[in-house]
Amino acid sequence: MNRIESVFSQLKSQNKAALIPFITAGDPDSATTVALMHQLTRSGVDLIELGVPFSDPMADGPTIQRASERALKHHISLKDVLAMVAAFRKTNQHVPVVLMGYANPIEAMGYKDFVEEAHRSGVDGVLVVDYPPEESAEWVQHLEEQGIAPIFLLSPTTPESRIKHVAELAKGYVYYVSLKGVTGASHLDLQDVSDKLSQLREHIKVPIGVGFGIRDEQTASSIAERADAVVIGSRIVEEIEQSQPADLMTNVGTLVKSLRHAIDAGSGRSSDKGKGI
Question: Could you point out which of 12, 55, 127, 208 has its C-alpha 20 to 30 Å from the C-alpha of 47?
Answer without folding.
Answer: 55
